Amino acid sequence: MDKKKIAIVVMSGNFLMDFAGPADVFGHANQLRDMYEVVLISPDGRTVNSAGGLQINSERLENLGSIDTLLIVGNDQESNYDEFYTWLAGAHNRIRRIGTIGVGAAIVEKAGLLLDSNYFHTRDGQLYTSGGVSSGIDLALAMVEEDCGRGVAAAIARKLIFFYLNRQAYQVQFGTLVDTSPIAVQLKEWLAEHLHESLDVGRLAEKMNMSPRNFTRVFTRQTGISPAKFIEKLRVEAARLRLDEIDEPLEQIALRCGLGGLVSMRRLFLRHLMVTPSDYRRFLKLQKYENCN
């Protein structure tokens, strides 16, 4: 059986993980089914420089022949690739799947093919899009699942994703004092409904009918942590649970849980859970793969 050719379009300024991650997925699939041929190409066939300065050799389009899946990792916004756009506009009907990773969606749009973007990955007919970096791995796993089944995709995920530990390992640790503190227990339920709001010591003290100074002193003595740290932990745990239960964009989860934005959310997840939000979501997807097999 002829192998399916996976052509990954790379450009200068790419992050290595944008194309190396998906390439690894198809490479691991070959160890189980031996059905893919993965090649790196660029619009002009020249050597490209990654964002980290590494040089990447690529092939020219005319040397490829038939393409089953085209993955576009676009980043070089300053170069003129009109010839490539024209080729893509004319060739897309002969390609079974076209996927974009990160800003590769802009390349597809310049060729006249429109995509509805989503944070992780989505599909519209033959067109797929993903948010970039590690979400490109999710896109490649979805394609392998289409071709080889969920079992093969799950086996690859187990090899590539190193944090498929028991989910209990990813819970925020509050400490036993917080669990038994009267003041923390009284506040916890109310705070859960107001995490998206501004929560300073003054507001919490007012809720407990105490002065800010006395509230801070009593709370810290009973729980062993400051009110601000307590709220931070509650927000991270609320975001973790929301990732667990609801499929919505990370930005929206960050706002709903009072974490400010993606940058702040990522920093706090690493501090308290030692995993990024996107990696934690991928861990959940891996568990879903395993539970369905």
SSE map:
Blueprint: E1 4-9, H1 16-32, E2 36-41, E3 48-49, E4 55-56, E5 69-72, H2 82-91, E6 97-101, H3 104-110, E7 121-124, E8 127-130, H4 135-148, H5 150-160, H6 176-180, H7 182-192, H8 201-207, H9 212-223, H10 227-245, H11 250-256, H12 262-273, H13 277-291
Parallel strand pairs: 1-2, 1-5, 5-6, 6-8
Antiparallel strand pairs: 3-4, 7-8
Give average pLDDT, whole number: 81
Strand content: 5-15%
Order of helices and strands: EHEEEEHEHEEHHHHHHHHHH
Could you name the CATH topology of the largest domain?
Rossmann fold
Question: Major sheet: order of its strands?
Answer: 2-1-5-6-8-7
Outline the biggest β-sheet: 6 strands, mixed
Q: What does this 3D model show about the protein?
A:
One of its GO terms (molecular function) is sequence-specific DNA binding. Keywords: DNA-binding, Transcription, Transcription regulation. It comes from Mucilaginibacter pineti. The protein has about 290 residues and is of the alpha/beta class. It has 2 domains: about 5-160, Rossmann fold (3-Layer(aba) Sandwich); about 170-290, Homeodomain-like (Arc Repressor Mutant, subunit A), CATH 1.10.10.60. The protein has 13 helices and 8 strands. The chain has helices at about 15-30, 80-90, 105-110, 135-150, 150-160, 175-180, 180-190, 200-205, 210-225, 225-245, 250-255, 260-275, 275-290, and strands at about 5-10, 35-40, 50, 55, 70, 95-100, 120-125, 125-130. The strands form 2 sheets. A 6-stranded mixed β-sheet has the order 2-1-5-6-8-7, sandwiched between helices. A two-stranded antiparallel ribbon has the order 3-4. A hairpin with a 2-residue loop joins strand 7 and strand 8 (about 125-130). Helix 8 packs across helix 9. The longest helix has 19 residues, at about 225-245. The protein is elongated.
